[in-house]
Amino acid sequence: MYLYLNEKNLDKILLIDDTEIKQGTGIIKDNQEKREYSIRELMKLSITESDNTAYVKLVNYVGKEKLQKFGNDIGALNTMKGKPTDCFGIKIHII
Question: 74, CA 20 to 30 Å: which among 22, 31, 32, 81?
Answer without folding.
Answer: 22
